[in-house]
Amino acid sequence: MAKAIEIKICMGTGGIAAGGAEVMEAFKQELGKKDIKASVGKNCSMHDVGCRGLCAKDVLVDVLIDGDKSTYQYIKADMVPKIVEEHVAGGNPVQDWLVGEDYHNFHGNQVKVVLSDCGNIDPEDINAYMAVKGYEAASTVIKKLGPEKTVETIKKSGLRGRGGAGFPTGTKWEICSKVNAEKKYIICNADEGDPGAFMDRSVIEGNPHAVIEGMIIGAFAFGASDGYVYIRAEYPLAVERLRKALDQAREKNLLGKDILGSGFNFDIKVKLGAGAFVCGEETALIASIEGQRGMPRAKPPFPVHSGLWGYPTVINNVETLANVPYIIRNGADWFSSFGTEKSKGTKVFALTGKVMNSGLIEVPMGIPLKKIVYDIGGGIEGDKKLKAVQTGGPSGGCIPADMIDINVDYESLAKVGSIVGSGGMIVLDEEDCMVNVAKYFLQFTQSESCGKCVPCRVGTKRLLEIMERITTGHGRQGDIELLEKLGDHVKSSSLCGLGQTAPNPILSTIKYFREEFEAHLEGRCPAKGCRQMLTYSILEDVCKGCGACLRACASGAITGEKKKPHHIDQAMCIKCGACFEVCKFKSVGRE
Amino acid sequence: MAAKGFSIKKAEGALEKLYEKYRGLKGAVIPILQDIQEEFGYLPEDAVNWIADRMEMPRSNFYGVATFYAQFYLTPRGKHIVTCCSGTACHVKGSERIINSVMREVGLQEGQETTDDMEFTVEKVNCVGACSIAPVTIINKKVYGKSTSQGILKEIKGLRKK
């Protein structure tokens, strides 16, 4: 009897970057040669069972023979013939190329709801999603449950907005359902703007139908007839898969007129964001869909009362919506069995930075941060020491290493001055300068400030100027206090969430790493992260005179004869660090 | 500041089609600008003015939107596009050094994006969402993960020869 063979190849943005398409082509060719009946399918994206440990271990390939799964890592096209020969045809997996223990630890400590199908199914095929009970929830809601009970279920589940603010989703839907209007809208916010976050992109790339199903359920529950997905143009693969998924859903009459014969009409349009972080804010996002500059306005009225074109509008984040079908299918109690008393369910994080297994993870709310960094993340790269974990991106704050036992949920993080945010989690080690990282976030928010209100427009600019002088060795006494005072003012008086949270990275860094700020005022950068404050010099007794630094130096500051110690002219040095990077003998010192 | 090579006469046909596509639609300014950029590679001032007049909308509406969003380019772009991610993960893994060395290699000053010979455009973007392979550099849409200054400079030197 012929064996059922299935090969899944990671084809997310990371998988493709690592050569996923070439690997897929190689499999097609090899299998063609051997005339083996196999479906060379695409494993959904890089953040899933096929490809977690991620792009770091890409290309990841699953080979399933009669359901027996082996996962390979770091696969290149030229390795494919051996896999096909020995494993697919011969039945013996190529042991040396299989994933190791760290890959299994990475998975074993997670709980998957939103990502449960992501990575197991072909995201470009609606039938693959339907085979894992996809769209059953939408059908249940439309045919049996009815709007009120649907809202009730979501309320009871305790689902809160995953975009950052954590507003209860069921409550938002309920408020909108009670507004009388001739037309209502649902908008999926996929304008994932936080640098260092890629949860939403992964969900859409990996399982776009779950998001669409969530929108259908929401629209039915509070009576919307039109939906928009507002998505970043910087995510071309996600946009393409989303469009394909929408077409497929229309063909199956899951979108359009008289959905599933129920008389319910609903359709979804895709709107490409044009690159403005502030458009993650609800009212700015609406302005952008309306074709204007994406500037927020004062609330109330809230969008649920007056949103897009003045009609009641519910805006939900991608991850929030992707949770909805699973909640309907498995029940509110099932969902609320994960998490803490006030933070229910799971949360997807983008775990990045100086951690061994960086990637997309999904964990129950309330999990200790330590478990994320050490058990799932596999600890810090290169045996360095953990310094802090930054959560919530430019709106969040840092958690110092000695508070690593903290639980990750809305309340606990808020207590220490950070936030869950949309899910960025950046691990920093002893070589990262906290002052520099705080400045980095401020640079971001300052340049993304839309300029409408003065506290944010002028305040972030002034804060940045102070940070600039501190990180270039020109800090003045009293600057730290000035940052605290000004930061408080910007927080309390800005119009929207961007300005209200922009000072957070600085304030929380001052709170936990004040001595590092003070060191900068004294002209030192202890972590050696602020290049303007460093002096590069060549250690003459170590230098072999190979000339690598001389060639790398763009400013012509390095001189020296071959095989003799070189020298840096401090007056000409622009402190770019190129010599430090290229020297193989560690003979470039920096102080 | 219509750039060399752009002629409004030649563009009118394409613009008229755009006008037909978006006539009477609400909220069309951003998609129109996106389409113009898709067609010409940037937003030629004459083209934007033409469509604004044709739509009977103030030119300032279009100008305001075009300058607000990072996606829109008001000047022509180079033959080769080098996109350096400066998201958080890339930043802590040294993207700044890569960006600086790329700028030096192609001969760009701080604040300048495109080389005078129109060969290279170097742009910084906030985050391309591929943080687990940081630092990320994209050269002509090909993604280079875990990139190093030396590796990227080699690619750029290779492009220059062509």
Keywords, please?
heterodimer; A: 591 residues; alpha/beta; Glutaredoxin; Rossmann fold; Ubiquitin-like (UB roll); 5 domains; 5-stranded mixed sheet; 4-stranded mixed sheet; globular; B: 162 residues; alpha+beta; 2 domains; 7 helices; 11% strand
What does this structure look like?
The complex is a heterodimer of chains A (591) and B (162). Chain A folds into 5 domains: 5-108, Glutaredoxin (3-Layer(aba) Sandwich), CATH 3.40.30; 127-336, 3-Layer(aba) Sandwich (Rossmann fold); 346-429, Ubiquitin-like (UB roll), CATH 3.10.20; 434-521, de novo design (two linked rop proteins) (Up-down Bundle), CATH 1.20.1440.230; 534-590, 2-Layer Sandwich (Alpha-Beta Plaits). Residues 42-53 of chain A have low confidence and may be disordered. In chain A, 55% of the residues are buried. Helices cover 40% and strands 15% of the residues of chain A. Chain A has 22 helices and 19 strands. In chain A, α8 (199-206) packs across α9 (208-222), α9 crosses α12 and α17 (454-471) packs antiparallel against α18. Chain B has 2 domains: 8-68; 80-161, Glutaredoxin (3-Layer(aba) Sandwich). The longest helix of chain B has 15 residues, at 8-22. Chain B is built from 7 helices and 4 strands. Chain B is of the alpha+beta class. Helices cover 48% and strands 11% of the residues of chain B. A 4-stranded mixed sheet of chain B has the order 2-1-3-4, with helices on one face.
